[in-house]
Structures are given as structure tokens and as C-alpha cells.
Amino acid sequence: MDYGGNSGSDRVALEKMRRPYLEKHQVLDSSKLESQSPFELWKAWFDQASQVISEMGSPNEPNQMALATATRDGRPSLRYLLLKGHDETGFYFYTNYNSRKGKELV
What we know:
Order of helices and strands: HEEEH
Shape: extended
Strand content: 15-25%
CATH topology of the domain at 36-105: Pnp Oxidase, Chain A
CATH class of the domain at 36-105: Mainly Beta
């Protein structure tokens, strides 16, 4: 596949590497959603994911999540948390407040 580079340069045209991953009929159309509430949509997705994980007999917990933050000087950090609840105001998760990740989140 030609990505637009040339033999006289190490430059690769990264913008030309993009290709469609979905057919037009597979693209999310917000007008066709059952709800416009992001929390209701998330709940439907979570319920479906939980059912699939259960049917597979997977040891994974569907409420596992990754949260990335950055310090004031821009140093990124990623930690894994357990989602413990949600409502129309947001998501609630468990972490150890005495750990490094807990202190970074405060």
C-alpha cells in the first residue's frame, strides 16, 4: 500500500493511512438511538456487556475501568478502578485514598 511517501524522504504521509473501518450502515446515527441520555445508553451497553461476560464464564468483572489523569506539570498516570455505582450525576468508583492513585485523584 502506498502511503504517499517518496524515496527521497523519510516522511510518511500519516494522514493518508486512514481507512474506513465501518460501512455506512454501521455508523452511529444519533437520531436512531433509543435514548438521547448518555447515562441510559451507557446502562444499556453495560447490561449487554455484563450478560456477554456472564455467558462466556469469564472471570473478568464488567465494572473494571481504567482512568487516566495527568499531574499539573503534564505527567500522565493510568490506574484501574472498580465502578461501584452511577446515576444521572455521574459515576462512582472505589479506590484506596491512601494510595498514590488516590492522592492524585483528590
